[in-house]
Amino acid sequence: xxxxxxxxxxxxxxxxxxxxxxxxxxxxxxxxxxxxxxxxxxxxxxxxxxxxxxxxxxxxxxxx
Amino acid sequence: xxxxxxxxxxxxxxxxxxxxxxxxxxxxxxxxxxxxxxxxxxxxxxxxxxxxxxxxxxxxxxxx
Lengths: 64, 64
What we know:
The structure is a homodimer of 64-residue chains.
Chain A: E1 2-9, E2 12-17, E3 30-35, E4 41-45
Antiparallel strand pairs in A: 1-2, 3-4
Organism (chains A, B): Jeotgalibaca ciconiae
Region (Disordered) (chains A, B): 1-27
Protein name (chains A, B): AbrB family transcriptional regulator
């Protein structure tokens, strides 16, 4: 069970993400932050929109 | 949708917990950190053991 404490840094609250199995979390990763009513905080890695592509029609498939 | 980015601070990875609805998360709160295989990080507030009490027999209830 890994634990970590929140702390003030300037005017914002930060938390250290401790290493698990000797591996540190990746820096510069964007997370979606979800606060649950029970106090749990969920950090979901933000993904780029898969369908946001340059070309129009790249997902088009011809009928066989 | 609130997002936040991880960053290096010294040798550890930290993330700012952004305010939600104008309210900041509480500093000095201990969280249990859970890393999921899909990259999601769950922070569960650590609670004291409810049954870790001083007196022996405080939970004893007599039969009616």
